DNA sequence: TCCTCCTGCTCACTCGATTTAACATCGCCG
DNA sequence: CGGCGATGTTAAATCGAGTGAGCAGGAGGA
């Protein structure tokens, strides 16, 4: 029982053009070495056109073992909104090479992840992207170790895989550079830090790298960091509290580096409540460049997570087998200059 | 030239179990009508287990014309962040029925959309979801009219397709209800309106429906709307300007219904600048429930776009052929009560 | 003893493509 | 005039499964 309604196949085209299926295949797949006469070629192309022939990729894949398909499995996307850009970038690179993208999310559940990967392997994807929503280490499971894979926004410790991550350390340096250029020296404080919490006693990758960059750039300029308020990055509330206690102190900072825009939002709220004005009394620079940054008044200078470029690069590397030497690719984080930095007040 | 490394196939299992390939197929696909002895069944299952057999879905699909795959094509996702939830919901419903999801974005380019849909059709997807990031009308192209399709967050004028949209009108009623319950009567103003702009001279769907709901609920209570500030919804700036002129007037409103959270954010900023406090001097209720709503101080009461549920429902309907009568499904928008509403000051 | 019926399994075809090897036909050269 | 190479085309196998028809062998009945 062939389950009903079929599309136009090569056999139909062959019949229409008065040649064999083989010939049709040769013409349509453009094999130059097979010497088909111009007339036959024309008849076939004409028939294909007329009948609206479209190849059945499923059948093609079965024979060629190539599906023109890549799978992207992330841990979670809804929580960090900018992930959309990452997927978009991945999609863009896939389409450029005529691939379609399977997208799925494990929700951090290993069993769910296993199933998803298995589903993609069963469907013979050409390659896999393992994505994390905030940079961290990741160990691909045994089932995919022999499979073309790229890690997106995560690092593997074994060095077996190609990884694509943002260049957080350089971003840290850039943040400091902006403040130094504006004339800030000793009053620079950090809100956020490495994000040491119960769940992450060593801090998070982005935090550690940003801090490293910040400290390096400051010491290169011979400036001492006035202090770091370690706190959770998850909501403006934490930034507010940190800033409140800073601004109420007897030697408030002249500039604050916030580890993300949410914290910066909290700092803005605190400054407002303390009757201080950004950037006149307090310069603020931040990371991530979420939409929030452009909505704040004054608009917030922030160093962007290059989500689009991350996704793009990952898939692009995945589909260029020649460039798939295991390596860590660090994508630059662009500075978005806005109005939250000014010279320190004297 | 069979291009190299192959996985375990049914033929391998058959050899291992000492039966024919046919028998293996019958056992593994669980056909009860074929009378296979218990011993044979056990040997086959054992062999499959031992060899780590996994069916090749590509081959299966070729024969059965079922790919266990659905395609989701949206216009754009990166701009409106909450789309992530929508995709997640869609994914969830797909997985429940053992389907995987192709995700793609047309970027509002009809030619790109055509290509994406064609790519999915060529890959024999079982069904398509056409998604829009903000509710609007959509006319599926000729190429997919005979294909199982569901419209997600958009409506078709022809009534040929199943559509899933948020119940905006009811949300409008709910917003008013919250204010009436708090004791507001004549001082209720709307910021945003139908969002009449150059690009949308008739306003947008969400705007018109919300306004309809708002007006209906007010008139049902015998209350007159104090006024509507029609404006662009895209950034807090517009909300700020609208609110500024309202609050500086001689009869400022006691409550404002904002057509989305960005506008509400602008209203907060304006209230702050005018020395007014939310909710003591001004109650605010809003729509969408973006993250922003919970970050604001005081936290903003907002009526959520049920993105997750929208995506979930769309795919769920798509994969239940019995329920695929063309119809419009309106998904309720949940109220998130927070701290931005109080009784009017006398 | 022959016929039928059931049980348990297999043969051979099919899905829609790719790909290898071979087969006509023709002209040309020795 | 026979063999050979070039040219244009096709038959048949293959990818990995699903599936209708059929075939042994034993039990049971007439």
From TrEMBL, chains A, B:
InterPro entries cross-referenced by the UniProt entry: HTH_LacI, LacI/GalR-like_sensor, Lambda_DNA-bd_dom_sf, Peripla_BP_I
Keywords: DNA-binding, Repressor, Transcription, Transcription regulation
Top-level taxon: Bacteria
Ranges where the HTH lacI-type domain occurs: 8-64
Stored SMART domains: HTH_LACI (SM00354)
One MF annotation (Gene Ontology) recorded for this entry: DNA-binding transcription factor activity
One Pfam match: Peripla_BP_3
Protein name: HTH lacI-type domain-containing protein
Organism field: Streptomyces abyssalis
